[in-house]
């Protein structure tokens, strides 16, 4: 894989989990936060692009510090301590489920000359799946590591991953060793 053309996309991991199934999803997000952090650290070391894309929580500002502050609570705290944007990471807000819909993501990825995306985050059966679909239609190569994606329902997550693999040609192998990326 040509790393200079690969971008890591982290979807909705800055989250307040303030909804009916929020506590369940928060526990699952904690489990995927560590492998995502390992990927992020690798990308940062290699000076490869990391893009956080997140719901805006009606703040409508791409100010990740303000969104993190809004999302701070007992459910999100362990995740936010581990996984947050740093100075060289990109941060975009999205109005709907897909990271491409109504955002500058496509333009950013073309400026970065990315042709391969590693999609991570929550929820696998909604925002990650919709983003994968839009990325596939834009002819990006997709990697969606199964240990970096979570949904409220495990069966829905498995189904979404299979859809991404079978229909969108995504590689869904879990990330085990970061060195396999280089």
Description:
With 182 residues, the protein is α/β, with parallel strands linked by helices. It has one domain: Isochorismatase-like (Rossmann fold). 40% of the residues lie in helices and 16% in strands. Strands 1, 2, 3, 4, 5 and 6 form a 6-stranded parallel sheet that branches. Strand 1, helix 1 and strand 2 (50-55) form a beta-alpha-beta unit.
Task: Tag the structure with descriptive keywords.
six-stranded parallel β-sheet, alpha/beta, 182 residues, 40% helix, disordered C terminus, Rossmann fold, single chain, 16% strand
Which structural class fits the helix and strand makeup? alpha/beta
The separation of the N and C termini measures: 7 Å
Main β-sheet: number of strands, strand sense, barrel status?
Answer: 6 strands, parallel
CATH architecture: 3-Layer(aba) Sandwich
Give the C-alpha Rg. Answer: 15 Å
Which term fits the overall shape? globular
**Which range does the strand content fall in?**
15-25%
The helicity comes to 25-40%
Number of helices: 6
Mean pLDDT over the residues: 92
Short summary of the structure?
This protein has 182 residues and is of the alpha/beta class. Helices cover 40% and strands 16% of the residues.
Question: Which SSEs are present, and which pair or pack?
Answer:
Elements: E1 6-11, H1 22-45, E2 50-55, H2 64-71, H3 77-82, E3 90-94, H4 105-111, E4 116-122, H5 124-137, E5 141-143, E6 149-150, H6 154-166
Parallel strand pairs: 1-2, 1-4, 2-3, 4-5, 4-6
């Amino acid at each position: 894989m040509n790393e200079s053309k690969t971008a890591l996309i982290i979807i909705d991991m800055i989250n307040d989990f303030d909804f009916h199934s929020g506590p369940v999803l928060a526990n699952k997000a904690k489990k995927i936060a560590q492998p995502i952090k390992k990927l992020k650290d690798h990308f940062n070391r290699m000076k490869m692009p990391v893009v956080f894309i997140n719901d805006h929580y009606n703040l409508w500002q791409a100010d990740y510090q303000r969104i993190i502050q809004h999302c701070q609570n007992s459910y999100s705290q362990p995740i936010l301590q581990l996984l947050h944007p740093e100075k060289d990471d990109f941060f975009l807000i999205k109005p709907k489920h897909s990271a491409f819909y109504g955002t500058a993501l496509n333009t950013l990825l073309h400026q970065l000359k990315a042709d391969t995306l590693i999609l991570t985050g929550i929820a696998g059966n909604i925002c990650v799946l919709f983003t994968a679909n839009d990325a596939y239609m834009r002819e990006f190569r997709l990697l969606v590591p199964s240990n970096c994606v979570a949904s409220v329902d495990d069966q829905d997550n498995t189904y979404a991953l299979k859809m991404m693999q079978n229909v969108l040609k995504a590689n869904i192998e879990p990330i085990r060793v970061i060195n396999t990326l280089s």
